[in-house]
């Protein structure tokens, strides 16, 4: 399946920003299930690429002159193999046993994971854990914020894809299963739109397997991966700091065409 993708992001500020730094993880890498045929970023100035500690392609955009808005565009052509269920690991999975503030488990999450999986650590058990989390935390936009932790979202019993993924990571790691946060795109049901999305990957049987808790999917048939990390903060497509600017507003639009 070949997809032509364009992702436009526009930031505007109430007053001029004096300077800003944006960390961009908007460039996907090729793997067993996705092949990047073409890809480019259209940015306000030239930037260099580097590989971050998790193997993601990272661009650091620095603007040191006043600006009232910021436009970012990522576009390219990719080929996805919907039949590929797993990915090999080029790096050790052990770092993904570490927790973070957003993915720390409390007794409630640890007990929940233990009840669902018992002594099992196979793909079937982890899929059942995914289903149980989706039942416990219905999709509810506005119920949480970008800083909501796994503990808070689980206790509230609702959330969005970011919260579902954080809760899953907390549970999996509490069971001794390496698991990582994935940011990317999901091709919608009508296959004419892409949505920014988040899901998880767990290290089972010496490979990474995907678990989309929000959509209850264990096969990433319509997913394009951008970046991975311990949590949202490691893998989010755009993360930055700025001086000045006041209130910020953001608009994003993603288009996809089948080739």
UniProtKB/TrEMBL annotation:
Residues 153-215 form the Transglutaminase-like domain. Pfam families: Bact_transglu_N, Transglut_core. InterPro entries: Bac_transglu_N, Papain-like_cys_pep_sf, Transglutaminase-like. It comes from the Bacteria. SMART domains: TGc. Signal peptide: none annotated. This is Transglutaminase family protein. It comes from Pseudomonas putida.
């Amino acid at each position: 399946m070949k997809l032509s993708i364009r992702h436009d992001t526009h930031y505007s500020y109430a007053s001029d920003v004096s300077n800003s730094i944006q960390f961009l993880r908007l460039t996907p890498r090729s793997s067993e299930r996705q092949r990047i045929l073409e890809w480019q970023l259209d940015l306000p100035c030239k930037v260099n690429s580097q590989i971050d500690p998790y193997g993601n392609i990272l661009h650091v955009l620095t603007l040191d002159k006043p600006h009232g808005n910021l436009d970012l565009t990522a576009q390219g052509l990719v080929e996805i193999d919907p039949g590929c269920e797993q990915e090999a690991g080029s790096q050790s999975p052990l770092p993904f046993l570490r927790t973070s503030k957003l993915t720390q488990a409390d007794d409630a999450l640890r007990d929940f994971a233990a009840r669902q999986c018992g002594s099992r650590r196979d793909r079937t058990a982890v899929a059942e854990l995914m289903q149980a989390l989706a039942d416990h935390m219905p999709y509810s936009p506005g119920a949480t914020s970008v800083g909501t932790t796994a503990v808070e979202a689980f206790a509230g019993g609702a959330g969005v894809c970011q919260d579902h993924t954080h809760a899953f990571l907390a549970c999996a790691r509490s069971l001794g299963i390496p698991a990582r946060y994935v940011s990317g795109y999901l091709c919608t049901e009508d296959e004419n739109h892409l949505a920014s999305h988040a899901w998880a990957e767990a290290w089972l049987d010496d490979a990474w397997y995907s678990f989309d808790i929000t959509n209850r999917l264990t096969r990433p048939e319509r997913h394009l991966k951008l970046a991975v990390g311990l949590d949202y903060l490691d893998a989010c497509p755009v993360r930055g700091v700025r001086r000045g600017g006041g209130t910020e507003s953001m608009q994003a639009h993603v288009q996809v065409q089948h080739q």
